[in-house]
Design goal:
The protein has 277 residues and is α+β, with helices and mostly antiparallel strands. The chain is built from eight helices and 18 strands. It has one domain: Ribonuclease Z/Hydroxyacylglutathione hydrolase-like (Metallo-beta-lactamase, Chain A, 4-Layer Sandwich).
Length: 277
């Protein structure tokens, strides 16, 4: 497992499962001739994508950013999403000497199935249970509203079984706008989804920002390179134009959730990778 140390904050990437997606969908209107040079596709035009939740250890707390695919997929869904590496968060945590009950907070950037699939898991008996039964689950209010009011588009990514029992557990914490938590800052931005939030991590020795699906891979550094999955594409472009130069000026690390080539990088003013992990 890869790690990034920011002095008082340590980030560890976990295995949330890996799948293959159509490359054209991941790069929207960008010609394949361009994006294929940075993130090559196979002969069927699919690209490999990981789903890597971040374990952030800060101020004595264990904080998880997103939860991966989970273990609830049917064989048909595994085939549909071309899953080639299974979700293993509980065993990853055990390798680190942690039980899944040791997670204090789960921060969901948004509630798409590839980010929220591990909120609820199938236990040994096949019954659904909260994967992190002691964790406060932090979600923006607008995002939770949309989870509970799906439309013809969002019904294909907000899966109700990913939230079974969460609201009733008392562990759901709905927030709005900017929230500070143990050295982290969550900021509602919208863009990818209406209730999307980014996460800033500022340690005693540097900073990192998790833009999640606003910046799914290093190849998406160009503000115009966005996904067909983005619900509000012009907002995503504007957000990247606003946010990325500010974080680049601070020499912050950009952390990735989907990039199979790197877990984090620093970018120069032109969006070129100058350092990576």
């Amino acid at each position: 497992m890869k790690r990034l140390q920011l002095g008082s904050i340590e980030i560890t990437w976990l295995n949330g499962g890996s799948f293959e997606l159509d490359g054209g969908t991941m790069f929207g209107a960008v010609p394949k001739l361009l994006w294929n040079k940075k993130y090559p596709a196979d002969s069927e035009n699919y690209i490999r994508m990981c789903n890597s939740p971040l374990l952030v250890q800060s101020q004595g707390s264990n904080i998880l950013i997103d939860t991966g695919l989970g273990n609830k997929f049917s064989s048909k869904q595994r085939q549909l999403f071309r899953i080639y590496r299974e979700w293993s968060l509980p065993s990853d945590l055990q390798t680190l000497g942690l039980d899944r009950r040791a997670i204090d907070y789960v921060v969901l950037t948004h509630c798409d199935f590839d980010h929220a699939g591990g909120v609820v898991m199938h236990g040994d008996g096949g019954e659904p249970e909260l994967t992190f039964p002691n964790a406060r689950h932090i979600i923006q209010q607008k995002e939770w509203h949309d989870v509970n009011h799906v439309n013809i588009r969002s019904a294909h990514t907000y899966f109700s079984d990913n939230f079974t029992g969460l609201a009733e557990s008392g562990l759901l914490e709905l927030v709005a706008g900017i929230v500070e938590l143990k050295g982290l800052t969550m900021r509602h931005t919208g863009g990818h989804t209406r209730g999307f939030q980014l996460v800033e991590m500022r340690g005693s020795e540097g900073c990192a920002v998790h833009l999640g699906d606003l910046l799914p891979t290093h190849a998406h550094a160009n503000p115009l390179w966005i996904m067909a999955y983005d619900n509000f594409p012009m907002e995503v472009i504007a957000l990247k134009q606003e946010l990325m130069p500010a974080y680049q000026q601070e020499n912050c690390w950009f952390t990735f959730y989907h990039d199979v080539n790197m877990n984090a990088c620093r970018l120069d003013a032109k969006g070129k990778v100058v350092e990576q992990r």
